[in-house]
Write a structure and sequence with these properties.
Elements lengths: L3 H18 L21 H8 L3 H8 L8 H10 L4 H10 L13 H13 L6 E4 L5 E4 L1 H7 L8 H7 L1 H6 L3 H17 L5 H13 L1 H9 L7 E9 L2 E12 L2 E11 L10 E3 L1
Antiparallel strand pairs: 1-2, 1-5, 3-4, 4-5, 4-6
Helix pairs in contact: 2-3, 2-4, 4-5, 10-12, 11-12
Length: about 270
Amino acid sequence: MVDSSGRQREALRHFLRSRRARLSPDDVGLLATGRRHTPGLRREEVAVLAGVSASWYTWLEQGRDIKVSDGVLDAISHALRLDDTERVHLYRLAGTNPPQPASRSSAPREAPSLQPVVDGWLPAPAFVIDRYWNVVAANSKARSLLGVPSHGQNYLTSFFTEPSARVRFPSWDDMAARLVGQFRVQGARFPGDVRFDNLAEELCRADEAFAGLWARHETCNAARTRVRVRVTGQQGARYEHLILSLLENSDLSLMLYMPMPYAQGVGLELVAS
């Protein structure tokens, strides 16, 4: 006779296998390799996406009695593209209490109400990012002047992998060091959330400059800085950059850019780049 814990582990095994079977490598941005005898992702592919070892994920899917953290379960939820209901179900099958919604990034829910906020900042740039620096909302000036990517894309990834960023920002090196330091501080606010480590590893592979800065382990918590942006030819504009946390959801940060005026207090300050 199977006890309740055994039935729960068996249910966990079937649930994970079924969620894995419904995904293809294309669905998660992986290159399909080799011949597949069964549909869906392989266990080792889920492990890579979740940032855990293949053997550990295999043990979990086999229903072995192992301890799991909330951060790992959240990473597996993300890797398997679970919706909110499925995510809660996974936590319960694993024998843990689902975290409160406030502990997760709620960018999809907040996005509609935040677009008017950033649009109201025009003609200056403004945008909102979540805890992983994915873009939640951005106004037209942020996209055209700062190169902020579209909704759902990662600002940090765009900054380090898009060649136009190095042209757009004359002081790109200084700005890059500051962004990496800020990202490290942000990650420390959410210990156990492996998605920060996964993103850092991806960026280290994608860009040598990021890899070098990440290896320094430097931090930056500046909420107010100055940014210079090349506009046309040899001219550019200076902005005061403010980072504001939204009180209703500490996962979200509002990025505001205020044009720096002339000495007389009017207009944009044009500078040689």
